[in-house]
Structures are given as structure tokens and as C-alpha cells.
């Protein structure tokens, strides 16, 4: 009886760990970008509708001081920087926009 209880406890602990891992994966920047639909217009290393994110990273010298600037662009949209097609405002929180900006700047 006691050992059955312990086994149940172990399973609960295990389930908790697995859940934590899954949610950690769900918030990886790439998964976030996927979920937010960024890849409808962007790719990491080639132009789609919007610029390749590697080109964005290079333009801003991989410099994290541009995180707030890019986060603002991601949230509010932008136009006229890469061409004539505007980027519409994106449905992301400030924290998500910053996470995506940091991720994009890290691409080489
Ligand atoms: C409907 C198409 C579309 C979607 C969806 C989209 N983008 Fe863009 N994005 C663009 C276009 C077009 C540009 C270039 C705009 C310009 O020239 O100013 C751009 C530019 C950018 C830039 C460069 C901004 C700058 O100041 O140089 C970043 C960073 C960016 N997008 C990130 C994202 C992220 C992150 C997402 C998802 C949350 C996203 N985009 C979703 C079309 C899109």
C-alpha cells in the first residue's frame, strides 16, 4: 500500500518535470516566432516578404542595445526601412517582443 502511494508520488513528480520541460520548449524564441506567425513573412536566412533575420542581425551589428528599438518595431510594425512593404503591428507582449528581438540579433 505504502509503496503504491510512493509510486504514484513518483509518477506525479515525473509528470511535473515533463510538463516543465514542455513549457520551457514552448517559450523558446523560435517556437514563439512560429506561434506568432513571423515565419509567414520572414525566414532566418533568406528574404521572404520581410528581410532575412540574419540580415536584420547584421544591419544592427548583433548589438543588444537595439533590443528595445527592434522590440518596438515588432510590436508596432514598421515600414520604409527594408523596402516598400510595411510590416503590420504584431500581437506580442513587450516581453515577447524583446525576446524575439534578442533572438534575431543573435543570428549569424
Ligand atoms: C505580414 C508580414 C510580416 C509578418 C507577419 C512579420 N513581419 Fe517582420 N517585417 C515584415 C516586413 C515587410 C519588414 C520590412 C519593413 C520595413 O522595410 O520597414 C519587416 C521587418 C522586420 C524587422 C526589422 C525591423 C527594422 O527596424 O529593421 C524585424 C526585427 C521583424 N520584422 C521581426 C518580426 C517578428 C519578430 C515577427 C513576428 C512576431 C514579424 N516580424 C512578423 C513583414 C512581416
Shape: elongated
DSSP E strands, number: 0
Distance between the termini: 57 Å
- CATH class, named Mainly Alpha
Total count of helical runs of at least 4 residues = 5
The CATH architecture designation is Orthogonal Bundle
Number of domains: 1
* Unreliable residue runs: none
Give, in order, the helices and strands: HHHHH
* Structural class by helix and strand composition: mainly alpha
| CATH H-tier superfamily | Cytochrome c-like domain
Round the mean pLDDT to the nearest integer and report it: 88
Q: Characterize the biggest β-sheet.
A: none
Task: Report the portion of residues in β strands.
Answer: under 5%
Q: Which percent range fits the helix content?
A: 55-70%
Bound molecules: heme C
Structural topology:
Elements: H1 2-26, H2 29-35, H3 53-59, H4 67-76, H5 94-106
Helix pairs in contact: 2-5, 4-5
The structure holds heme C.
Residues 33, 36-38, 40-42, 49-51, 56, 70, 73-74, 78-83, 85-88, 90, 92, 100, 104 line the site of heme C (HEC).
Give a quick summary of the entry.
The protein is mostly helical and 108 residues long. It has helices at 2-26, 29-35, 53-59, 67-76, 94-106.
Protein described:
The chain has 108 residues and is mainly α. The protein has a single domain, classed as Orthogonal Bundle (Cytochrome Bc1 Complex, Chain D, domain 2). The protein is 57% helix and 0% strand. It is built from 5 helices and no strands. Helix 2 (29-35) packs across helix 5 (94-106) and helix 4 crosses helix 5 (94-106). The chain starts with a helix and ends with a helix. Heme C is lined by residues 33, 36-38, 40-42, 49-51, 56, 70, 73-74, 78-83, 85-88, 90, 92, 100, 104. Residues 33, 36-38, 40-42, 49-51, 56, 70, 73-74, 78-83, 85-88, 90, 92, 100, 104 line the site of heme C (HEC).
Amino acid at each position: 500500500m505504502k509503496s503504491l502511494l510512493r509510486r504514484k508520488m513518483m509518477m506525479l513528480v515525473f509528470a511535473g518535470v515533463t510538463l516543465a520541460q514542455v513549457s520551457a520548449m514552448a517559450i523558446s524564441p523560435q517556437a514563439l516566432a512560429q506561434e506568432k506567425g513571423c515565419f509567414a513573412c520572414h525566414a532566418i536566412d533568406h528574404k521572404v516578404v520581410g528581410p532575412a533575420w540574419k540580415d536584420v542581425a547584421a544591419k544592427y551589428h548583433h548589438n543588444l542595445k537595439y533590443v528595445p528599438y527592434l522590440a518596438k518595431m515588432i510590436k508596432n510594425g514598421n515600414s520604409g526601412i527594408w523596402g516598400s512593404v510595411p510590416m503590420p503591428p504584431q500581437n506580442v507582449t513587450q516581453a515577447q517582443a524583446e525576446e524575439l528581438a534578442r533572438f534575431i540579433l543573435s543570428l549569424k
